[in-house]
Queue: 2 jobs
Job 1
Amino acid sequence: MANYNPKSLKAEEFISHDEILKTLAYAEENKNNIELIDAILEKARPRKTDTGYHCEGLTHREASVLLACEMPDKIQKMYEIAEEIKLAFYGNRIVMFAPLYLSNYCVNGCLYCPYHLKNKTIPRKKLTQEEVRAEVIALQDMGHKRLAIEAGEDPVNNPIEYILDCIKTIYSVHHKNGDIRRVNVNIAATTVENYRKLKEAGIGTYILFQETYHKESYEVLHPTGPKHDYAYHTEAMDRAMEGGIDDVGLGVLFGLELYKYEFAGLLMHAEHLEAVHGVGPHTISVPRLKRADDIDPDAFDNGISDEIFTKIIACIRMAVPYTGMIISTRESEQVRAKALSVGISQISGASRTSVGGYTSEERPHDTEQFDVSDQRTLDEVVRWLMEMGFIPSFCTACYREGRTGDRFMTLCKNGQIQNCCHPNALMTLTEFLQDYATEETKQVGYNMIRKELEKIPNEKVKKIAMQHIEDIKNSNRRDFRF
Ligand code: SAM
């Protein structure tokens, strides 16, 4: 059995099975230990400092105790603290994005994914550069500025050169006032050299879901193809960082293995990145297994209820307070609303999970990876967020100003977000309202912006933001951001 060592570069040492089992036993033993639970909750709480807020975060053991705790009053406390943390570091802004599926060719055998090699019923499709352009125009016409590109793993059909060509095409399209300003990438684990190429192509975050941290299950769930190699997959983020990518996004696919095991593994992965690279994950995603072509989620035993799902999100929020959290349209409007209040900071809107889906009138199902639960338009999602008091943000400034990795974390920790991200969110929301929103959404939006401008603490910043918003409304666009 490998020894646990968060600083090791070996998957089996930084995600030690033995340490996870000990963590689960410790959490089970202490799940009714009120004194310990109160102390952990107290540790998680944000503290006011001269420059903003400070949060200590929680270790995987501490957070696992909270996750195991079933006392309703303590769970309620967890939700309150998670919300406090989110407001302290992210304010009421929610970053918007959409996935763009490039190709569903795949040589892997993942048992939960409809793109698996043996699925002969799903049509295979790969976008040409002309089709990528058309998809990007459709996404820009909705108002999207930030994409996550998705592709199956296939060295012949989807080599890195193809992915790089697509990124170049995406950044080159400027339709009307449209502009994709940040391309995040969710492709299979690859080499340091390829990560370097992605970095040079100007990607934002490199996202790779672990699917499961449980090695034995991982090998059963990925019986064939390059993804079968647990260590190569689990060590991918270290290679990505070695290749110069400093924003990486983690996630597990909930439903495959026991959620308490995955939760501990996920936090150990975050601790490992912090210990080795000095910066934790930029984002954590929380996908849940969905029905898809040739895939029946009921065939997997570890599905989780909406209540447990919400608790997981709140516990992640308390453990890694500076990490953004992403929820996709796999989840319904109701689940997303609750998740937003306990820690989610980024959501997708109007997603189509099929290859070429954005250029079809109807949401096509033929090549899709899973059916989406939240089927609203982007305009509807934006209005819904504002009606709940959230500011939908289309901002990509940090990435364009080089505020990535630990530079972003510093901004976040110093509480400068109110003078920086907040006005940027309002300015990009104005662009959205002006260019793409319905009259009803515009009205809700401009009311909100007026009130939110008043919250900018620095008077000079406030004045500049107000002027800039007026300029956008008067069609006087400048490439400006804080
Ligand atoms: N092929 C790449 C890889 O291996 O990481 C790219 C990722 S794939 C396009 C995006 C993610 O969708 C997967 O990592 C997996 O977690 C998730 N996924 C696959 N099948 C799913 C299903 N049936 N329901 C929900 N999510 C699914």
Note: Residues 72-90 form the longest helix (19 residues).
Job 2
Amino acid sequence: MYSAKTKGGGIRIYEPSLSPAMRDRLVLETDLRVALVTGKLTLYYQPIVEVATSTIIGVEALIRWPHPTRGLLIPSHFLGVAEDAGLLGILDRWVLRQAIAQLAEWWHNGHQIAISINLTDHSLRDPELIFDIEDLITEYDVPADAIIIEITEYTALRDMATTNEVLNGLKQLGVRIALDDFGTGYASLTNLRNLPVEILKLDRTFSAGIGTKAEDEAVVQALLQLGQGLSLTVVVEGVEQPVQQAWLERAGCQLIQGYLLGRPMPPEEAQVLFGTHPITETENDNDVAAGIAETG
Ligand code: G
Ligand code: MN
């Protein structure tokens, strides 16, 4: 039935030959529809820390699905199914409302942090997104510049004309745009100049070699300088070791994110850390680098 509905209604013949993998996908799709309708998805928040003051100035919202039998699922486990089922628009709208409502609550509680939101390129090619975000800003009465929309290089370049129109519309609202996973894709420096991007997030594959690989350090150093030259704020992702944090501080890096500063966590846990100094508090935590591997 769901397979038929997905295809816009009509008849699908039940095929006993459906492979176990296909059946599993169908079940997951059904579960996802139910989870979306019954509000069973959740957002985790990972701290973004200002190096100079070692305080949390923002969080990245990351979607999680506590599945009744499969455990806590990360986006790579279900975004493909969501895309096939035509659910990306609904999913992104849910993420936006949830994140902005959380932002409003935090500001109301006196925590003036920024929130970074990941959207799929499906939404970033839809000019309606501008009005939807504008409405949410009004409804929840939050400052537009506390909202950061993260886009990947791939998204930015895939349909550059439309995406650029959407991004410029968001910029006019005062919303900031971050280029995620920077350095892993195809964004040329020319593209970078033409996109309304204010923040660069250096992919964690670069920070991995800090402290051990001179080549990686040279690349990070160069990218930090590039950011500075273009007046962009740079966030280095994937900081897991104190030695990496110390190196980045010496290199003049402004913002860092990674397991050393905090894993993605439920909002109540994140709020406890606001106003504290997570770097010094997690330094002795042997557990920090033992996370699950995933691709945002
Ligand atoms: O692509 P994007 O930057 O949005 O991906 C963020 C993802 O990276 C999150 O799902 C998060 O769990 C993961 N992540 C965050 N910090 C670290 C880290 O220090 N090390 C590793 N390996 N993954 C991380
Ligand atoms: Mn991201």
Note: Confidence is low (pLDDT under 50) at residues 284-296.
